[in-house]
Amino acid sequence: MKRNFLITLFLIVSLGTIAQVNHPISVRSDERPSMDKIQAYIDSLKSLKDSVFTRKMPKAQRGQRLRRNDMRLFLPLTYYGNVAERLFTRDRKESPILSELMHLYLTRPDLVEGTDRMVQQQQTKLDDIKAPIHHDPTLVEKVADRPVEPTNVPVDVLVKRPNFWTFSGDYALQFLQNYVSGNWYKGGESNYSALVSLVMQANYNNKQKVKWENRLELKYGMQSSRSDSLHSFKSTEDLIRLTSKLGLQATKRWYYTVQFIGNTQFSHSYRSNDPKIYSAFAAPLNINLSIGMDYSVDWMNHRLKGNFHLAPLAYNMKYTRMLELTRRLGIKDGNHFLHDFGSEFTVDLEWQLMESLTWKTRLYGYSTYKRTELEWENTFTFRFNRYISSRVFIYPRFDDGVSRDDHYAFWQLKEFASIGFQYSF
Fold it and tell me: Could you tell me if 216 and 242 are in contact, meaning their C-beta atoms sit under 8 angstroms apart?
């Protein structure tokens, strides 16, 4: 650094001396050196200056000497104060542009037209021109809307009354193996037979408070037994039962209900090799009328549905048109009717155990101070497809209003298994 400083100081003094020599009037000496010597002296100083300022410059930067701040070289020559400051500081960085400007300041001061302060003073601020925005809308006449004239097409208006009725049914033709206890109240015999059953339902629900449910069950089974020499065919299953309930909704699940149940059979019932009639059409005819509450069941994600009927007041009538059956049916001798009052309950449920397995159960109970009647019907149905199914029917029954049996007492049992055709709608 000391060496560079001394060389720069020497250059400044030398150039000052040269400037004095070029003037025509000199106060120090009247001697005028030749112009050739002076020019040679100036060239040597330039060469020395170039060697000082370009000696330590990397080769990679020499080709880029005029690329930085080259704008100052092409504008009118202006004296920038930071040029000398940046060149003569201790931690200065080599810059060819600044060196060229310093060279011009020292050799041709007559070309300098101004300073950087003068340039800054001449700069003017740009004022935002606030010009109002004018809208010149062009008014046009509004065209009146033309109404679209509808095409007159005759339309047939069909008004349908709401239908609150729903209908469903189930048909079945089954072949079965049948077992009947010896004291079955309608008679019968264990055997192989066929069964035809039909269940139809017609239900009314006005979606407000009134509900009326009706179900008709018809079943008839026949058998042909070789051991029976008196009868070519005998009935194994014989049922006509009508159940009707009229309900008035009390809450979401509870209904005030009046229930009617009536049941009888189609034909006579016999035992093998016995001409005695054990039951027949309207012998007996049972009618039960009860008043109570119904609870609607919808559990297990709609897989278990049905209802409970609880009736604290019920009227029961038993009729027989054949007087010879009165004692067997629990009716006084010489009377066709038996009237009594009591309480009654009915449970009707259908449980979808699996996709193809269904359990239907009916539990009926009627009780007075003198007698009790209990029936529990269970039907397990396994469906192979839409039309073929297999059934297992288990029907225990208790009735202490009839004559006591020495072996089964007041209990009765009926069971069968079958397979055949079934269609539901």
Answer: yes
Please list, in sequence order, all residues whose beta carbon lies within 8 angstroms of the beta carbon of residue 31, skipping any fewer than 6 positions away: none
At 265, list the tokens: 């059979």
Phi/psi of residue 209, nearest 5 degrees: -140, -10
Which residue reads 């003198």 in tokens?
A: 370
Q: Phi and psi for 391 in degrees, rounded to 5?
A: -130, 145
Amino acid at the residue 377: E
Tokens of 189: 């015999």
8 Å CB contact between 244 and 214:
yes
Which pTM value belongs to this model? 0.60
Question: At which residue do the structure tokens 């159960």 appear?
Answer: 361
What residue ranges of the chain have pLDDT lower than 70? Answer: 1-34, 37, 40-41, 44, 47-71, 90-94, 122-131, 149-151, 153, 176-178, 188-191, 226
- DSSP letter for 323, please: G
pLDDT of residue 350: 95
Place of tokens 């309930």: 245
23's CB contacts (< 8 A; 6+ apart) are: none
Closest by CA to 261, choosing from 198, 321, 181, 317, is 317
- Going along the chain from its start, the domains and CATH numbers come out as 2-121 (no CATH), 165-424 (2.40.230)
Query: What span, in angstroms and rounded, lies between the C-alpha atoms of 260 and 240?
Result: 14
* Distance, CA of 346 to CA of 308 (rounded, Å): 6
Q: Which has the closest alpha carbon to 105: 123, 83, 90, 128? A: 83
235-288 tens-digit pLDDT: 888 999 999 999 999 999 999 999 999 999 999 998 888 889 999 999 999 999
Q: Single out the residue of 170, 225, 167 nearest to residue 196, CA to CA.
A: 170
Looking at residue 83, its pLDDT comes to 78
- Cα 94 to Cα 101: distance, rounded to the nearest angstrom: 13
